[in-house]
Amino acid sequence: MKKTIIGLFLISGLFAMAQKETHEIAEGVKEYQNLFNSSMKEGVACYRIPSIVMAPNGDIIAAIDERVPTCHDVKYNPNINIVVRRSSNNGKTWSPIETVVDFPLGQSGSDPSMIVDRETKEIFLFYNYMDLDKEKNVIYLHMVKSSDHGKTWSKPIDITDQVAKPEWRTDFKFITSGRGIQTKSGKLLHTMVNLENGMHLIESDDHGKTWSLIDTPIVPGDESKVVELADGRWMINVRVNKAGMRYVHVSNDEGKTWDTSPAPELIDPACNASIIRYTSTEDGFKKNRLLFSNAKSADKRMNMTVHISYDEGKTWSESKTIYTGGSAYSSMTVLENGDIGLFFEKDDYTENAFVSFSLKWLTDGKDKWKKPSKKRKRKS
C-alpha cells in the first residue's frame, strides 16, 4: 500500500509539472514587446489579428483588432475597432494605442491589413466592415489611407462594389488580414477570400484610387498572402483547413491562370501566416530571399517559427523557433536596419508580441544582412 501511495504521488507530481510547462521567447531575439493585451484598456475582451509594415520614413506601424464585448470574430461581434501603435526606433519603444477605425455600437471593422506604396509614400489599411443591426450577413470591404507615415488616417472608403460581384452580397467574403504588396511595376495587389466562390486577387493600377477584381477563382484558398517572385511571377501562399500543411499557387500571367501544389515542408494547423520579400538582387542585394512565418504544427496553434528561402519558395530552410508556446496569426516586415520584425498572437490571444531579430541569428551565422552599395533602378 505504501508503494502504491508513493507511486500515485510521483505520478501526480509529474502531471503537475507537465501542466506548469513554461515557454519562453527564443534566446537571441533583439527586441520583445507585448504590444497589445486586454489589460491595457478597460472593457476590451482581447486584441486579435496582427498586421505590421514599415512606413516610408522607417517607422513601424502595428495594427490590430480591438475586440470590446467579446473576442468573437466580426460576424458575431458588435464592437470591433482598428487600432495601431507606432515605433520610430526599430521597435525599441512604441507610441500609445491610437484608434484608426471606431464605429458606433452594432458596427464593427475587423481584420486589418496594409500596403505601402513606395512611389506615393501612402499607406493603405484595409478592413472588413459589418453592421450587425441592419445587415447581419453582409460584409463590406473598406480601406483608409495615410499620407504622413501612419500618424493620421482618412475617413473610411468603401471599395466593395469595385472588387466584389453583386451576387456575392451575402457571401462570406473578406480581404485577408496581414498585408498586400506593390509589384515591381507599381501595381498594388491583395488577396480577397470568398468561402463560397473561391479566393481572388484584387488590384489597383492607379495607386489605390480605384480597385478591380481579377476574375479567376483560386482554390483551395482561405487566408492567404501574395508575393512577387524575382522573375515577375506571382505566388500565393495559402491556409487550407484540415490539410496539415500550406498550399502554393503560382501564376505567370498576372493572375489569369494558376498552377497549384501542396507544400508539405510548410507544416500548418490551418492558421493565417506571413510571407514577405526580404531581399532582391534587383534592389542591389547579392541574394534573393523570402521569409515565411507561421505556427508550425499540423493540428495545434503553437510553435511560432520562421523559414527562409533562397530559391523563390521552391525549398525552405529548417525553421527557427521564435516561441514554442501558443501561437496563431503572424505578420512580418523588414526593419530599416535590416532586421526582421515579427508581430504575432501569443498564448491563446492573451498577448500580441513584437519581436525583432537579425538574419545572422535566423540562419545561425550562415548568412547576414548587408546594405547594398547601389540600388538598381526599378523598371516603370
Structure description:
- There is one protein chain.
- Helices cover 7% and strands 44% of the residues.
- The protein is mostly beta strands.
- The chain has a seven-stranded antiparallel β-sheet. A five-stranded mixed β-sheet has the order 9-8-7-6-11, with no helix packed on it.
- The termini are far apart.
How much β-strand is present in the residues? Answer: 35-45%
Give the terminus-to-terminus CA distance: 83 Å
Number of helices: 3
- Average pLDDT works out at 94
Please tell me what the overall shape is.
globular
Q: Quickly give the CATH architecture.
A: 6 Propeller
Number of separate domains? 1
Q: Could you give the order of strands across the largest sheet?
A: 1-25-24-23-22-21-20
Share of helix, binned: under 10%
What is the class in the CATH system?
Mainly Beta
Secondary structure: number of strands: 25
Secondary-structure class:
mainly beta
pLDDT < 50 stretches: 1-11, 14-19
Order of helices and strands: HEEEEEEEEEHEEEEEEEEEEEEEEEEH
